[in-house]
Write a structure and sequence with these properties.
heterotetramer; A alpha/beta (308); B alpha/beta (242); C alpha+beta (104); D alpha/beta (547); A: 308 residues; alpha/beta; 2-enoyl-CoA Hydratase, Chain A, domain 1; B: alpha/beta
């Protein structure tokens, strides 16, 4: 067997939401809430001639990570781009509220959000948008209760729209090379502002603007991992113990961090310009080099922070 | 309504609210029975980008630091988030999230937060500028939307007429105040025929919900019938399995 | 969008003890299959919800052949289809039976 | 007195007219239009170099811009009608007649122009046929070609995309025609000389590099389980069975799946070194894992592929390269290699009828042929023996007669249904209808049924060599046509009998478990994996990236 085939099964990008959960958590004891047999499906899709999914594209439940109890949600990026609809969003809201209510010594040690989403599901846009606001609200409540919320991004849909905002509301963000974290998608910008502003078919450009490497180097992502599920697992285990509290000091630090980024790089239009300004070695090659070589790069000063 | 109309109607005794860079608004005003309020905002139909978001978050955090629990009024007449390569490169998601978190922190520190929408607000700007306060009031001229119907038509490849017809029968995707009120996103709608000042004073007097009740409200208003039940079922299963 | 059911008789009860599995995804050209062990041992059934209308006879032929091939007695299959072709349907159905028959 | 030098005089007149816009051989790019108006004459046969890969796009646009009152009634004789500018020639009345081979993206526009009477069609050819006719009755008066660089004398370096250039230049230059080359740049010293200066009359330094389409890049991420199943069946039931070492692959996903299964499934079957060692093939990125795993000894290519240049330079034991290190491709020679030196062609098609005839014509589109009909045909002029060729020949003749000739293996792979549940098996090809509508003398058939040896679908393999009557053949086709109307109209008994005889083989007959057809078997599951396999030498085009 080839060297690549052996690692295949454990590839985050390739895996389904359920396969990611299976590989991320300890082998025993994942309990799904509102599982597919309960058929909690979107009632809104039929009027758009679309069939639904038995779990509405998100799996929520409880399991253990390295022995510690955690709650977890995983979006299925292949179903309608992992987008937030009424049921989909409410499942996540319910999970986060459960975490908040269970906070304490016997409560969950973390909530893991395996995001894989294009943002709001247009067929139920209002419900999806409001769900995103409710999710953000609930994430903050969970964090305020002392439970870290970790975002794990590395699927084909990325974390766009409200999904990008949710990501940055979490305590920590783990991403692999394929991840894109952004608000407006490249196609949306191209449609609204023209191809000169953003050529969405130039995929290398897309990843330079919103890909995991760009985010990691400037501090938009806390941990960059090579794309196996095992690597996501190890990063999550390592990060649970070291998460910023949700408090004034944290947000003041984030205010400083983001202001500084804007001051230093506010006139850049492509990632290599940022990397050059920051004095990183061979900025024009950073998007091309192997993961190992990339991980050896010293991040931009301030990118490693507790300000989120 | 113009910004001046809104400010005059809200604060008839005067205010020290000034326009800042990137379409932002900041200053102090007084509300009868509540004393000082902090006013922030994004106005003039300006798209909400990284520059405005960091300024606004800074104003909010400064108010929190003042530890005076003064209410925060967020005036919004924006468009969508700034759709630009540069803003995305800089990590617009973090800036919008930061603004949202700052408003949540203010609420947690006892500041009553209210967003007043008197123009457009779409997509990410709607989340950060309108939905991140404890209450969202739609003033005359408010035109909130997640996505406009032509865009939905383009993406879903469904004919415009069919979508417009559908929009009349369900509040689940259509833009506008009424559908967003029905699903629980908009707390109140104020018409122009009565001054805003007493209504704001009244709103600020009402007890603050201890948690997010918007799904409950959406259920009561019959605009969002499933969200509350689904969330409750998940939470119940989680509690049962604990 | 179209919904229908296909019932069948089976020569034997499907092996294994799993109560339920779900496989695949409702994506373009793909489908998700939820299998539940809820029927009498010698009956089987497939419920289809498909976004693409007008292919019911083909679905019925595919499912009939699947029943003959797999003898999935006792199993109810529920499908959310995103326009999968018959070969993909057969593959997913066979995969789902194999998962049900797994020891776990 | 007869004048036996008319062509030369004509050529000299044109050279003279062109020289007003040139300094030596060099024509400034802003004078390209006026220059072409000087050297091209009404009624000329013109070749605007362009095929399914590289394009002399700058010259194409310049020609489409000439004054139609001065230049008109051109007869376009070229491999590919691919660019908008190619169509514009006809729309604007600059060109009238067309003989071509491939159209790809412009298939629908060509059909519309034919219906509208804008194009007078000579014929749709295969590549070899059109090149052959360059030397008989379609010799260009003017050839407009593309190269990477020229030196000051006019020698050309084509780079890895040599493709059609030597053939076009040969036909034109040696029959008193005019050869004009667009180059990306003019340099003092070329890495190597692909076309000598004395065959080139004029050089235009274009304002941008010529366009190359990455036509042969297949993203492993899009390979489906059904395609993997088909690939497994093909490897076990055909490659291994016939010990096929010399072969050509088409560009579809099923054959990409085969390429990606060689180092995994093929290795499990112990087939390395026994099959698929020598190729006539474009530089498919999906073959990288097999090359890196030591499967492939030698590849000759029709053209190049975007992003593969460095990799091929570094693997010169496998590819044909110049002394400068870069690939040298040649479409005509590789077509000949595929036709006469390969024992198997295996490729996908879009539509096949009950006699096994196949076509890529879909309603309203004329995609042309390219090279597939030649690759996918039994060359009856072949005389050298090889084991697969003889085995196929024996199967076809059923041991009858004392003289058994060999047969090429011509394998068609197709899923029973295509996009939007369109059946790929039909009683009658769409191309027949199209031919009737457009009054063609000949229906465009990509591969004739009597040349096809095997059809592979997700349902099984049909070995048409073993069919002894048209009726058997029809049932063999229906027997692998799945749930299409064609498949469901099968005679079940007859199909079962064919299966007993091994004419039809199901996955289980080959010992292949349906559920083994998993993407886990692929040696690479993304373009990025291919980059990794290549040690970073393969530079994937941006549009295929997801990192």
């Amino acid at each position: 067997m080839s060297k690549l085939s052996q690692t295949f099964k454990a590839d985050w990008y390739e895996a389904s939401a359920r396969e990611r959960i299976a590989g991320l958590l300890d082998a025993e004891g994942f309990t799904e809430f509102l599982g597919p047999e309960q058929r909690a499906m979107s009632p809104h899709l039929a009027q758009f001639d679309l069939t639904g999914a038995f779990d509405d594209g998100i799996v929520v439940g409880r399991g253990r990570l390295d022995g510690r109890p955690v709650l977890l949600a995983a979006q299925e990026g292949r179903f309608l781009g992992g987008a937030f609809g009424e049921v989909h969003g409410a499942k996540l809201v319910g999970l986060l509220r459960a975490a908040r209510d269970a906070a304490g010594p016997d409560g969950p040690h973390a909530v893991l959000l395996l995001l894989d989403t294009g943002g709001v599901r247009l067929q139920e846009a209002n419900a999806g948008e409001l769900a995103i606001s409710e999710i953000i609200h609930a994430i903050i409540e969970v964090r305020s209760a002392g439970i870290p919320v970790l975002a794990l991004v590395g699927g084909r849909a990325g974390a766009f729209g409200g999904g990008g905002i949710i990501t940055a509301c979490c305590s920590r963000i783990i991403a692999s090379e394929h991840a894109r974290v952004s608000v407006s998608g490249p196609e949306v910008i191209e449609t609204n502002k023209g191809v000169e502003e953003f050529d969405s078919r130039d995929r290398a450009l897309v990843w330079r603007i919103c890909g995991a490497r760009t985010r990691y180097l400037t501090g938009g992502v806390d941990r960059y991992v090579k794309g196996s599920i095992q690597n996501f697992r190890e990063a999550a285990i390592a990060l649970i113990a070291h998460t910023p509290a949700f408090e004034l000091a944290t947000l003041k630090a984030e205010q400083r961090r983001l202001s500084e980024r804007l001051q230093r790089f506010g006139d850049c239009r492509d990632a290599p310009e940022i990397w050059r300004k920051a004095g990183l070695p061979e900025p024009e090659h950073i998007a091309e080099i192997s993961d190992d070589a990339f991980l050896a790069i010293q991040r931009i000063k301030g990118a490693d922070h507790d300000a989120r | 309504m113009t910004l001046d109309d809104v400010l005059t109607s809200l604060f008839p005794t005067g205010h020290q609210v000034q326009r800042g860079p990137a379409g932002t608004l900041h200053g102090l005003a007084k509300v009868e029975g509540h004393g000082k309020v902090t006013v922030v905002g994004i106005v003039g139909g300006t798209p909400l980008g990284v520059d405005a978001a960091i300024l606004l978050a800074g104003h909010v955090l400064a108010a929190v630091e003042a530890s005076d629990r003064a209410p925060i009024v967020f005036l919004a007449d924006t468009s969508s988030q700034n759709m630009a390569r540069r803003d995305e490169l800089l990590g617009l998601n973090e800036y919008l999230a930061h603004l949202t978190k700052s408003l949540a922190l203010a609420a947690a520190h006892g500041h009553r937060t209210v967003s007043l929408l008197f123009g457009h607000a779409a997509a990410g700007a709607f989340i950060a500028a309108a939905l991140s306060s404890q209450s969202l009031v739609a003033l005359p001229g408010a035109a909130p939307s997640v996505m406009d119907i032509p865009s939905i038509s383009r993406v879903t490849k469904l004919p415009l007429e069919q979508l417009e017809r559908l929009a009349k029968s369900t509040p689940i995707f259509a833009p506008g105040v009424a559908p967003l009120f029905a699903i629980g996103a908009v707390t109140q709608t104020w018409a122009a025929d009565q001054p805003f000042a007493p209504r704001l004073a009244d709103l600020l007097r009402q007890p603050v919900p201890t948690s997010d009740l918007r799904d409950q409200i959406g259920l009561e208003r019959k605009g969002r019938r499933l969200a509350q039940t689904i969330a409750a079922r998940v939470a119940a299963e989680a509690a049962a399995h604990a | 969008m179209e919904q229908f059911q296909v019932h069948g008789a089976s020569k034997r009860r499907a092996g294994g003890h799993r109560r339920q599995v779900i496989t695949g995804a409702n994506a373009s050209g793909n489908l998700e299959v939820l299998v539940e062990r809820v029927l009498p041992d010698l009956e089987c059934q497939v419920e289809v919800a498909t976004a693409v209308t007008g292919f019911r006879p083909i679905w019925e032929a595919v499912i009939k052949e699947f029943f003959e091939r797999a003898s999935p007695g006792g199993l109810r299959f529920s499908i959310n289809d995103g326009g999968a072709r018959p070969d993909t349907v057969t593959l997913r159905l066979m995969q789902s039976v194999q998962l049900m028959e797994d020891k776990a | 007195m007869n004048d036996w030098q008319k062509q030369r005089s004509e050529r000299n007149a044109r050279l003279n007219a062109g020289s007003h816009y040139a300094s030596g051989k060099m024509v400034p790019s802003d004078k390209a239009k006026a220059f072409l108006e000087a050297v091209v004459r009404p009624g000329d046969r013109v070749c605007l170099e362009g095929d399914n890969q590289k394009q002399a796009d700058f010259l194409a646009e310049a020609l489409a811009d000439v004054d139609p009152s001065r230049i008109h009634d051109l007869h376009i004789v070229q491999s590919g009608i691919v660019l908008q500018a190619h169509l514009d020639l006809f729309e604007r009345g600059i060109a009238r007649k067309l003989d071509f081979s491939y159209s790809g993206p412009q298939g629908a526009a060509i059909a519309r122009a034919l219906v509208a009477g804008k194009i007078e069609l000579g014929a749709i050819h295969t590549y070899i046929e059109l090149f052959a006719r360059y030397f008989v009755d379609l010799t260009p008066h003017v050839a407009l070609v593309a190269a990477v660089a020229a030196d000051r004398d006019g020698n050309l370096y084509t780079g890895p995309n040599t493709e059609d250039t030597p053939t076009i230049v040969e036909a034109t230059a040696f029959k008193s025609g005019i050869v004009v080359a667009q180059v990306n740049k003019v340099v003092d010293k070329l890495p190597r000389v692909d076309i000598p200066a004395d065959q080139i009359d004029f050089i235009v330094e274009a304002d941008r590099p010529f366009y190359v389409e990455p036509l042969f890049t297949r993203d492993p991420a899009s390979v489906t389980e059904s395609q993997i199943l088909m690939a497994m069946m093909a490897i076990k039931g055909i490659y291994a069975e016939y010990s096929v070492k010399r072969l050509n692959h088409g560009i579809g996903f099923p054959t990409a799946a085969i390429e990606l299964l060689l180092p995994t499934y093929g290795e499990q079957l112990g087939l390395r070194g026994k099959i698929a060692t020598h190729w006539a093939l474009n530089p498919h990125p999906t073959l990288i894992p097999a090359i890196e795993s030591g499967w492939v000894e030698q590849i000759h290519s029709f053209g190049s592929e975007v992003g593969m240049d460095d990799y091929m330079s570094a693997r010169s034991d496998v590819y044909f390269t110049g002394h400068d290190g870069s690939l040298r491709s040649n479409r005509l020679l590789c077509q000949t290699a595929g036709l006469y030196a390969c024992d198997m062609f295996i490729g996908s098609t879009l539509q096949i009828d009950i006699a096994g005839n196949s076509s890529t014509v879909t309603p309203g589109r004329i995609a042309g042929f390219g090279g597939a009909p030649n690759m996918g045909s039994d060359p009856r002029g072949r005389r050298h023996p090889s084991a697969p060729w003889l085995k196929a020949g024996r199967e076809a003749s059923d041991g009858q007669g004392t003289l058994t000739r060999g047969r090429k293996l011509v394998v068609q792979m197709l899923e029973t249904f295509g996009e939007k549940m369109k059946p790929n098996f039909v009683e009658r090809l769409d191309s027949i209808e199209l031919a009737e509508k457009l009054n063609f003398d000949l229906a465009p058939v990509m591969i004739y049924g009597d040349d096809v040896s095997h059809i592979v679908t997700e349902e099984g393999i049909a070995n048409l060599l073993l069919c002894r009557s048209p009726a058997e053949r029809e049932q063999a086709v229906r027997g692998v046509a799945g749930f299409t109307d064609v498949g469901r109209a099968r005679d079940r008994k007859a199909v079962e009998a064919l299966r007993q005889r091994g004419v039809i083989r199901r996955p289980e007959d080959l010992g292949i478990n349906l559920l083994a057809a998993s993407r886990q078997l692929l040696a690479a599951h993304s373009i990025e994996d291919l980059v990794t396999w290549s040690g970073g030498l393969y530079q994937a085009p941006s549009k295929f990236r997801n990192w």
